[in-house]
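Anyone up for a design puzzle?
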């Protein structure tokens, strides 16, 4: 049961990251002109282009991969998380470390949830 809760948390957080990249302002500024000050803000996608969605989608895609790997292990009556799920989880952990000063910190809950899911798989 705990494995599926952890996978659900990871998947929902990954989906939330995608939605936030498109909707939540990450930068703001103001321009002062003859007509007064104009405030502006930009989302992650507006600031960095559509290509950032590929990076932001990695935690969600990996969460789905870990879920499929664990479902396969359960269906074939094999105990534990196997090899695929921990390797995919390790990739998310590396992504978190590489992007720690930018978006990586927001991916940490996904990584922790996947570690918990792999640890609880039996």
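Challenge accepted. My sequence:
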């Amino acid at each position: 049961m705990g494995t599926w809760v952890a996978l659900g948390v990871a998947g929902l957080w990954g989906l939330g990251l995608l939605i936030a990249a498109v909707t939540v302002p990450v930068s703001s500024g103001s321009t002062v002109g003859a007509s007064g000050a104009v405030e502006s803000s930009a989302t992650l996608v507006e600031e960095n282009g559509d290509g950032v969605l590929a990076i932001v989608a990695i935690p969600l895609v990996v969460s789905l991969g870990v879920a499929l790997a664990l479902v396969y292990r359960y269906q074939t009556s094999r105990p534990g998380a196997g090899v695929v799920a921990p390797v995919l989880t390790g990739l998310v952990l590396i992504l978190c470390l590489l992007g720690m000063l930018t978006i990586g910190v927001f991916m940490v809950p996904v990584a922790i949830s996947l570690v918990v899911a792999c640890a609880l798989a039996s």
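A detail worth pointing out: The first strand starts at residue 25 and ends at 33.
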